[in-house]
Design brief:
Blueprint lengths: L8 E4 L6 H11 L5 E3 L8 H10 L5 E6 L1 H12 L4 E7 L9 H21 L1 H11 L1 H16 L8
């Protein structure tokens, strides 16, 4: 694959991420084009976030998105395909929400996380989100099991 140095690469971070997640990647790639990291924006929908992205982006570009940033990239492609000449999607879901009760439950879960973020802060929401991930729960369970097997010496003052 040949990269076109005349087109800038705009990188879109995931939820609760910023340019810091892209810095080590971009420094190692040594790409032959201008690379910039987009701000997430403050819209409340993917379409709104993609619109904000496009409003501040060059007329023609390459896009790379990570996690939720990749979903924003997909929406930007839907909104302005003539402006986007290539995409890279990393660690993201690309399928629409499930139909029926499963999709409705997913929306309720996401709205519950949003409520926690608005009332208790983003860190509380992130913790709950991580707990909902099967791999993270398994990691916590393994850590607890390993900790239970380690003899603990009494603490003396």
């Amino acid at each position: 694959m040949s990269l076109t140095p005349s087109l800038p690469l705009l990188c879109v971070p995931g939820l609760m991420c910023n340019a810091a997640v892209w810095a080590p990647v971009l420094s190692q790639l040594g790409l032959p084009m201008d690379c910039h990291v987009a701000e997430q924006g403050d819209a409340r929908t993917l379409s709104g976030l993609a619109t904000q992205l496009l409003d501040h982006a060059p007329d023609h570009m390459l896009l790379a998105g990570h996690s939720m940033g990749a979903r924003i990239v997909l929406e930007a492609v839907r909104l302005a395909p003539e402006r986007i000449h290539g995409v890279a999607l990393m660690d993201t879901g690309y399928l629409p929400r499930l139909a029926g009760e499963a999709g409705a439950q997913e929306e309720r879960n996401r709205m519950a996380l949003l409520e926690v973020a608005q009332t208790q802060g983003v860190l509380a929401m992130a913790y709950l989100h991580l707990l909902s991930m099967r791999q993270f729960r398994q990691l916590l369970e393994r850590a607890a099991q390993a900790s239970a097997k380690v003899p603990h010496a009494p603490v003396s003052a």
